[in-house]
Amino acid sequence: MNFGGKFPFGEVETSPKCVRIHRGIKRQASNVRRQASNVKRQASNVRRQTSGVRGQTSNVI
After folding, report:
1. Sign of the CA dihedral 23, 25, 31, 33?
2. Which of 18, 39, 43, 53 is the most buried (most CB within 10 A)?
């Protein structure tokens, strides 16, 4: 998602509306990335919890 300042379509920076839209898109992208990292963290937490439960049950048996 890195644009690197090179725009494939014409002059984007000249019109303020396009710049505003682009900024909004960038913000959405960062939000999506943050949500993805949160989901990943939750998944790892769940995996850790399940492994802990498995260890307890094996101790009980």
Report:
1. negative
2. 18
- What is the domain count for the chain? 1
| Distance between CA atoms of residues 41 and 29, nearest Å | 18
Residue 29 structural domain: 14-61
| pTM, rounded to two decimals | 0.42
Tokens of 24: 């909004």
Per residue in 23-45, pLDDT (tens digit) is: 788 888 888 899 999 999 998 88
Contact 12, 18 (CB under 8 A): yes
Q: With the CA atoms of 29, 34, 38 and 43 taken in that order, what torsion angle do they form, in degrees rounded to the nearest 10?
A: 50
